[in-house]
Amino acid sequence: MNSILKLHVLASGSKGNCYCLQVDNNLIFVDMGVGIRKIQAFLSAIPNEAQLKKTLFITHEHFDHISGLELFARDYDCLIYAANRTLEILTGKVSGIKERVRRIRADEIVEFNGFSARAFSLSHDAVEPLGYVISAGSSIGFLTDTGCWTDAQAKALECAETLVLETNHDVEMLRNNKQYPPELKRRILSPQGHLSNNEAIGLVTTLSCNGKLKSCFFAHVSQHNNGEAHLLPLGEFCQKQFGIKTTILRQDEYREFNLN
Ligand SMILES: [Zn+2]
Ligand SMILES: [Zn+2]
């Protein structure tokens, strides 16, 4: 049986996002918001990289999730999954990917080369944003860029042992940030914006009762409206209350984690 071996984090935050799962003979990317040099350096360090089948799941069309797509698709053979309306935008913007894109709908499960991916809707100011649960033996969920979490998302994430979860901002810190114009604050705080620390912990609490969650990565963390002073105590809370291990991801810090 296939299993998820490793999670590689190439970037996580408002300037760029890219995750890669190693699943036997697959490399499964979620978002491609990093430059080609970073991807090349990463892939050249993976043994037998050229033999591994590459698949890319795009969550939505915002720049921090697709900035590296064109050059990645130029240099590497891969299938690209996204929602229909997202694909319309991507194929209009990025040359040379038309033949390789595949549509995935919310609540659809695609099975492919020994793993499965289930998509679910997000609540974000993009045309058709999706989160994903990737399964191969175990399951890992990706939930970022959502202004709120829903019962449907929680249901989709019940099977996940691991979760990459948006903890974008501390609400008070954002409200008191004098550098941010009021419209930007309103956007981030809206139900189509980004998930706050407290909302994220609400989801962890729910999943601790109904799910299989063991490990949670705090992702898409704002460099201006959040910080360890807020996230470390929340991590301690998750560990103490639910036995869930947490890790804070940083914007451009490459990290790799063994998941099996
Ligand atoms: Zn984003
Ligand atoms: Zn976004």
Task: Explain the overall architecture.
With 260 residues, the protein is α/β, with parallel strands linked by helices. It has a single domain (4-254), classed as 4-Layer Sandwich (Metallo-beta-lactamase, Chain A), CATH 3.60.15.10. It has nine helices and 14 strands. The strands form two sheets. It has a seven-stranded mixed β-sheet. The radius of gyration is 17 Å and the shape is globular. The model has no long low-confidence stretch (mean pLDDT 96). Bound molecules: zinc ion (2 copies). One zinc ion is lined by residues 14, 17, 62, 64-65, 145, 220.
Q: What does the average pLDDT come to? A: 96
Query: What's the helical proportion of residues?
Result: 25-40%
Shape: globular
Compounds present? zinc ion
- Which sheet architecture does the biggest sheet show? 7 strands, mixed
Global Rg: 17 Å
Distance from N terminus to C terminus (CA atoms, Å) equals 13 Å
CATH H-level superfamily title = Ribonuclease Z/Hydroxyacylglutathione hydrolase-like
Give the CATH class: Alpha Beta
Keywords:
single chain; alpha/beta; Metallo-beta-lactamase, Chain A; binds zinc ion
Brief summary:
This protein is α/β, with parallel strands linked by helices. It has one domain: Ribonuclease Z/Hydroxyacylglutathione hydrolase-like (Metallo-beta-lactamase, Chain A, 4-Layer Sandwich), CATH 3.60.15. It is built from nine helices and 14 strands.
